[in-house]
Amino acid sequence: MPGIGAIGARCRHRPRRRPVHEWESGGEASRASGEGALETAIWSFQFRLIVLGDSTVGKSCLLHRFTEGRFPGPRHAEPTVGVDFFSRLLEIEPGKRIKLQLWDTAGQERFRSITRSYYRNSVGGLLVFDITNRSSFEHVYDWLDEGKMHAEPFQIVFILVGHKCDLETERQVSREEAEELASNCGMRYIETSAKDAINVEESFMILTRDIYELVKKGEISVRDGGKG
Ligand SMILES: Nc1nc2c(ncn2[C@@H]2O[C@H](COP(=O)(O)OP(=O)(O)OP(=O)(O)O)[C@@H](O)[C@H]2O)c(=O)[nH]1
Ligand SMILES: [Mg+2]
């Protein structure tokens, strides 16, 4: 990781549809130092994103696909213990790179006390359900409540992700009802497959661009030099 201050993203809670955010930042200007110079570094902002959802919906595979370009074989698909960390640079427009710090949380209830402590430091979240698993969709409201409660007094910008869209014949949640739920909760909706590499890049890109637009509009304020 380059020797550059990190950005933490925070959203101040306000009774309005769009959250107002407060941020720590590594500074607008790109900087390089030490080992970071090797990366000729390179990013304008650093966003912390959290990935949430029931166990087995495919959160870790989504992150492996996004950060390493591969789908882990069945032997490597182990439930996450607590929280895992990934990162990647994303170029959202020519010359504008965002460093993403990605927190992959365990969906299993027994790790909830650990995963809860990661909400407050996240500006964005991918709320993932499995389109072939109806109960994972029914738990979306619970995950949203969990996110809201533990991010207070800030808010997280969420995108709803219907995962495993390669399994169309096993679908238990229609695209229409997922879109309706997302719209009711002020989220975008996208369907992805880590297995077939469908919309994985796009899901992170859309969320990152939305957050970046909020930064540009001043709805997310940026703090300089935080370590995250
Ligand atoms: N068909 C299909 N299977 C997938 C896809 N993504 C993940 N899987 C499978 O879903 C299972 C669970 O994947 P994980 O990524 O470990 O699930 P998780 O949400 O991280 O689970 P926890 O860590 O317990 O919260 C594994 O058997 C994966 O191979 C996908 O896009 N398509
Ligand atoms: Mg996992």
Automatic annotation (TrEMBL):
The entry's keywords: Autophagy, Cell membrane, Cytoplasmic vesicle, GTP-binding, Lipoprotein, Membrane, Methylation, Nucleotide-binding, Prenylation
NCBIfam families in the cross-refs: small_GTP (TIGR00231)
Localization per Swiss-Prot or TrEMBL: Autolysosome membrane; Cell membrane; Cytoplasmic vesicle membrane
Residues annotated as transmembrane: none
Any GO CC annotation of this UniProt entry: plasma membrane
Gene Ontology molecular functions: G protein activity; GTP binding; GTPase activity
Topology versus the membrane: Lipid-anchor
Gene3D superfamilies: P-loop containing nucleotide triphosphate hydrolases
Family note: Belongs to the small GTPase superfamily. Rab family.
Alphabetical GO biological process terms: autophagosome-lysosome fusion; phagosome acidification; phagosome-lysosome fusion; vesicle-mediated transport
Name under which the protein is recorded: RAB39A, member RAS onco family
Main location: membrane
Organism: Anolis carolinensis (Green anole)
